[in-house]
What we know:
The protein is mainly beta and 298 residues long.
Amino acid sequence: MKRGQPAIYSGPSLFLRAHGRGTDSTRYGVHFRGGPPGQDRFLELNETNETLQFTEIPGDIPNRGLLQPDINLNGLTYLQQVQDANVIGPNGELAGIHVEPGIWVHVPVTTNPQEPTTVARLANIPHGTSLVAQGTALPPINTAPNIAAVSITPFTIAPPHNPVPFPETNLAIPTQFRTEPEDIPRVTQAMVNDPNTALRLGLQGKNVISTVTLKISTLPLNPPTSGGGTSNIAFLQGAGGGPNALAAQMDAIFWLETLEEPDGRILHQLQYTQTVLLNFNNLSWPHVSVATLIKQSG
């Protein structure tokens, strides 16, 4: 990325939540949410289009030290915008799904606390949640990433965190408590079982010559020093028998991939998988989103 020039990635994605996909890139989402009258849950599946724009923060960002000398951070601002790929909103345009402004920062090695070089993502979500997720950038590998499976099955908040499956995740069983099939024509049972299936499909037929992996979490990945956490408005925290829908944890992996085309051209691809745990009704509900985004020229 040239200094001062934004880098824009776009493509399909998937948003799966029990509470997507994008252009020349793909995003999917799966999650459960609170259901209509007659049931307390609804399985929402979205194929989405996503644009993720990064802009360099010029110069150093001084952080004053006390227990050790000052350090300088460096970073990027980002703006994530996600629309449904198929559903039209009341304004006649593709329905909006998500907007998120934030910052990525690079943190140098420190002695107090004793931390290696880390990265951190600072995000703001309009539902009333802000978060800091810190983690590490792994050394580059000269191949495609090995992408593990992920699940949207809710589990009990209280130990031992037993999984609580629901029949809505079986696409062969008709139900009014799941997104209509015509709104998700490319979502398969394999994607519902494991949303990261969409990421592996996004690698098929591509020659990945380099991958850098960023792994972050709002929980300490390098206890007890890695920082992070979520902060929610009072409504989400709830009272009495709450919470309403508390964003308790976020974990994400980003893969920055360099692709070589058959004609020798070099392309840059960004893939990510993200799981946000929303706590309500005595369960932790995984909201999973995945995307395969291509860096746009110019």
